[in-house]
Amino acid sequence: QSMDSPLHYIHNDSDLSTNSSFSPEEERKSKVQDVVPQALLDQYLSMTDPSRAQTVDTEIAKHCAYSLPGVALTLGRQNWHCLKDTYETLASDMQWKVRRTLAFSIHELAVILGDQLTAGDLVPVFNGFLKDLDEVRIGVLKHLHDFLKLLHVDKRREYLYQLQEFLVTDNSRNWRFRAELAEQLILLLDLYSARDIYDYLRPIAFSLCADKVSSVRWISYKLVSEMVKKLYMASTPTFVVDLMNELVEKFCRCHKWSGRQTFVFICQTISEDDCLPMDQFA
């Protein structure tokens, strides 16, 4: 035993502290791989031990989180079992900076792991980030399209119900959050059916068009024009007709001048981007 390296003891410590149904020996085997020297991986995994991280360097967990996608790419998806526990530990770290770092890279990790592992291991973490602080949620929001496009259609549709929640932030003055939401919704139009766009994305788009901040409104005009284009090209023409009627009712006939101005700007964007044939526009 005296011949064992300090790394081995570090690894044993972390094994004993895990709330796992595996024995320490089985736990150790689950983290064995042949891509990089095992001692190097053991050292990396040991850095996420909360007690050690607090005594050595409070930033160490953040650095581990930052490099985790690179480690996952190096080991390959066949060795994800080596990193899974560590990833879940970091995803529930008390420091929001650690969770924020993972939120910004979860879409990259999803590409590395593939759809099956993503659905089983990353989607629960992703759902947790959606309910986190704004500093964490923005990481998920900035790459919302990148992540959702990797999911199966049925799983992707489940998030339609949660998009509305992005309109609510910890600080209402955080207008960049809403601007990012509008940008992401433009990309998300390609992932959903005409009915889903009309039922779920349209109310959010109309809400953003009436935002107090002009930068948010300008992106939202583009969102509505792209929505008109997408619905016009759909096989069911009723959606685009209903949408245009609502634009006239909600903005053109608005008793506030700002609403009527919004209608003019939306018309301008629709015209400039050739979202409708001119006879339909007229």
From TrEMBL:
Positions of region (Disordered): 1-31
Underlying gene: Ppp4r1_1
Keywords: Repeat
One GO CC annotation: cytoplasm
Biological source species: Rhodinocichla rosea
Claim: Transferase is one of the keywords in the record: no
Single GO molecular function: protein phosphatase regulator activity
InterPro entries according to UniProt: ARM-like, ARM-type_fold, PP2A_Regulatory_Subunit_A
Protein name: PP4R1 phosphatase
Organism classification: Eukaryota, Metazoa, Chordata, Craniata, Vertebrata
